[in-house]
Amino acid sequence: MIDYSPILKNIEKHILLSEDEKEFFFSLLEHKTIPKKGFLTKENQTSKYTAFVTNGCLRSYYIDQNGFEHILQFAPQDWWIGDIHSLITQKPGQLNIDAITNTEVLLLSTNNQELLYEKVPKFERFFRIILEKSLVSFRQRVIDNMSLSAGERYANFCKTYPSLINTLPQKQIAYFIGVTPEFLSKLRRDFQKEDRHGKNLI
Amino acid sequence: MIDYSPILKNIEKHILLSEDEKEFFFSLLEHKTIPKKGFLTKENQTSKYTAFVTNGCLRSYYIDQNGFEHILQFAPQDWWIGDIHSLITQKPGQLNIDAITNTEVLLLSTNNQELLYEKVPKFERFFRIILEKSLVSFRQRVIDNMSLSAGERYANFCKTYPSLINTLPQKQIAYFIGVTPEFLSKLRRDFQKEDRHGKNLI
DNA sequence: CGTCTATTTGAATGTACTCAAAAGCGGTGG
DNA sequence: CCACCGCTTTTGAGTACATTCAAATAGACG
User: Fold this and answer.
1) Pick from A4, B18, B81, B192: CA 20 to 30 A from residue B141's CA?
2) Would you state the pLDDT for residue A201?
3) Which homologous superfamily does the CATH classification assign to the domain defined by B5-131?
4) Which of A113, A147, A157 to mutate to test the interface with B (most CBs of B within 10 A)?
């Protein structure tokens, strides 16, 4: 009934599994539907699950002391997401993770993840590789925040997530690149002006 | 001759090794001394080594298109450091890694790291855990850059790295928290004023 | 001691934010 | 089907935080 092929494909990019191992892995997953605006994780709660998105899109964000949202990650189809700090410390976390659209996820609980590592050590390798990639992208984010202007970060976002630009409220792009929605609106207006001038000059 | 106990202690926090495994692991390491201002890694070169600092302090930094330095990480004693993007893609990287003081490192080449994973799969677990921790700290860095003012980031830095405040040129702290050295100087002046006023009011 | 680099200071500037108000847009119920 | 409501986006004026540039001062090291 549940289609495990997307997650299997994701995993087999990095490790190969026997039929038994596949069955065992699938048996550890829980399928869940998160409706638009529904939550996977809330701040001040201890996270129990790492999620793999099979359909839809989740986002993780932090709310600061002034009540402003800052989006850390978008997780469209085929992405892994979770509050890793809370997951590894098993302490209450700072992040909220909710659904931008109706979303289907496969959940792996921390207990089952440990079990998986014990029974099928190859998964240590798999998650090591996933973590390497996440680390690279967060590192890039730190670099970009320190070395690029807001306009450059927006241009960057458009290049990196072309599929999200038209599906996402502009506000959320602003919260991701680290500017106010008002300022992003002005940036876009200025870009359009530049574009038009560019065209006229040709 | 080479003292492997610091790195062993670091590893045995997370996994336990047999004598043979220890010997094998040690045989894969290269010892190197990097003098103050010497380089482990230069931008545009493909990284070959992950380093463990047994003594001294390294830093990794990025130089942007305007020639400004942005420090990504300090690696004092007992820390791991490397240009992970270049290491995993085996393409030329963006980072420089150099020594703040004379530094002793143990180097693990990418080839030897793969060999280690093959022969002693427990190391997959070890590096998975190291990566989890790095990821948490880079994630926190993104959060802080988006939600805190420069003054708050500086106060944060002082709390997090008390040992570095007096050993590091102020400039480098500025490049780490993401402000100009001039502005950090002004921030510190203002903090001192506040402190004095605070004292006078009591 | 002299040189080189780091730090401090000040004035002018710029980038991005705040606040307030208007305009646009989508969904829902009558 | 359209009117209304709530939310997003736009716009503008004023402001704040941080940078730039230039010059003076302080510190470190050979």
Assistant:
1) B192
2) 41
3) Jelly Rolls (2.60.120.10)
4) A147
Q: What is the pLDDT of residue B197?
A: 62
Class of domain A5-146: mainly beta
Looking at chain A, which residue has its C-alpha nearest residue B179? A146
Nearest to A31 by CA among A60, A57, A52: A52
Residue B147 CA to residue A70 CA, distance in Å, equals 8
pLDDT of residue A202: 34
For nucleotide C8, the protein residue with its alpha carbon nearest to C1' is: B185
- Going by their DSSP bridges, the two strands B57-63 and B69-76 should be labelled as antiparallel
Query: Do the beta carbons of residue A94 and residue A85 sit within 8 Å?
Result: yes
Report the candidate in B9, B83, B72 with the shortest Cα–Cα distance to residue B46: B83
A106 close to A30: Cβ distance less than 8 angstroms:
yes
What residue type is assigned to position B79 of the chain? W
Q: Which residue in A41, A38, A106, A103 sits closest to A76, CA to CA?
A: A103
Q: B183 CA, D21 C1': separation in Å? A: 13
A52 close to A10: Cβ distance less than 8 angstroms: yes
* Partner B contacted by A180 (CB < 8 A): no
Instruction: Tell me how far apart the alpha carbons of residues B160 and B155 are, in angstroms, rounded to a whole number.
Output: 9
Q: What is the pLDDT of residue A166?
A: 85
Tokens for B73, please give them: 């990480």
Interface mutation vs chain B, best among A68, A89, A91, A124, most B CBs within 10 Å: A124
User: pLDDT digit string (tens) for A60-116?
Assistant: 999 999 999 999 999 999 999 999 999 999 999 999 999 999 999 999 999 999 999
- What does the pLDDT read at residue B166? 86
Domain ranges of chain B: 5-131, 148-202
What is the predicted pLDDT for the residue at A152?
Answer: 97
- Residue % of chain A over a pLDDT of 70: 96
Residue A193 has a pLDDT of: 73
